Amino acid sequence: MDSFEINKVIGGLLGTVFVVFSVGLVSDALFASPSPEKPGFAIEATEEPAGGAAGGEAAGPKPVAELLPAASADKGAAIFKKCEACHSGEKGGPNKVGPDLWDIVDRPVAEHEGFSYSAGMKEFSKGGSEKWTYDNLYHFLLSPKAFVKGTAMGFAGLKKDEDRADLLAYLRTLSDSPKPLPEAAAAPAETKPAEAKPAAPAEGEKPAEPAPAPAQ
Known about the structure:
Number of helices: 7
Largest sheet: none
Order of helices and strands: HHHHHHH
Structural class: mainly alpha
């Protein structure tokens, strides 16, 4: 290869480098994004606390004793249709996937005849001393697996307090002697501020004389 060919190759390489460099300069000029003189406002996404309550604490369910007086057994009967796939509700009814729920209110936990309970439910029953009170049923129906660890019940739960109260109102009717409703907690009595008493005179001092009556 003579010097002329070498000069052509070097010239081609230099030309290519020049073109690439020029394209880079033009691209930087066209697509440059200069920083603003004054910075804008940064938008920060705030995370909502768990449970939606202030301070990050989830609000607990309303007391069942406050909801039951206004609960509807008719609405509860409609909700009970979700339970009928696994439970019967008639007197002397058969056990299905779950036990018969006749007279369930105040019945000892895990003590219904003829049904084989899970180990978690037997442990919760404390040998039959624990009962299905309104309060226990109310919290169990919210989340069975959270309330009774190890239960075999696969129901996801009723999240609305009113729905659970309506269902309990219906379950209460499944008995020859419906159990009385629980009493709501009484509101704390208002205390009156103590009346200020006149200070006792110091030792050696005479008691203050009453102010003279105004002239007629």
